[in-house]
Automatic annotation (TrEMBL):
It is a multi-pass membrane protein. SUPFAM superfamilies: Aquaporin-like (SSF81338). One of its GO terms (molecular function) is glycerol channel activity. The chain crosses the membrane at residues 9-30, 42-66, 87-107, 138-159, 166-186, 220-242. GO terms for cellular component: plasma membrane. It holds the Pfam family MIP. This is Glycerol uptake permease. The keyword Transport applies. Signal peptide: none annotated. Belongs to the MIP/aquaporin (TC 1.A.8) family.
Amino acid sequence: MEYSLFTKLAAEFVGTAILMIFGNGAVANVELKNTKGHNAGWLNIAMGYGFGVMFPVLMFGGVSGAHINPAMTIAQAANGMFPWSQVLPYIIAQILGAAVGQLIVYACYYPHYKETESAEAILSTFCTTDAYATRRNYFVNELFGTMILVLGALCCLELQWGSQNYASASIVVGFIVWGLVCSLGGPTGPGLNPARDLMPRVLHSILPIPHKGSSRWNEAWIPVIAPIIGGIIGCWLFHVLFAI
């Protein structure tokens, strides 16, 4: 069944919002003061992002492809797997969905934002940073992480076994994200998604949060550009090596 462009955009909007609610919601639960899950640990965050990708792919994969990530959309278009005419509408839907999802996280954790005094903890619930404070490491981590994510997701969803059992493939994609956050998440977070980083960073800069500190705009280009390059490479590898 072919859905209308409006329905596809609605799926991308809602799917990206769900990603933010589960992912950054998990970070807020761990990092913000006096939450029930305060200091629950990195595994809690990894699970949040894994489920945050798994559920939208299950819900909307058959509607819009559940890109929920501008890097995935651009990568597929650059490799002839997605029409360029739909790239900008998809990205707008994803960006707006990320903003709404982050606002929901902010609303749900509002009292805890007011109580939290650590600027680093607050910023981590919105966007990524590099733990070693080096842009080179930041770029490398986001590029390779997104490359693996896109390659892995396409292999699961597009190859014969996944296309015949989409639900199982969607669950595996969620585990890929879970594994990536556990394995390559230490240096930067990670972002792996321009919408997941950019719009929350914008909101961090404008929302009236006590003790929030800098939004670190001097490095904000990295989690936008590096995932796009990594996504294109990952999609190219799939297209060259495995696409039938």
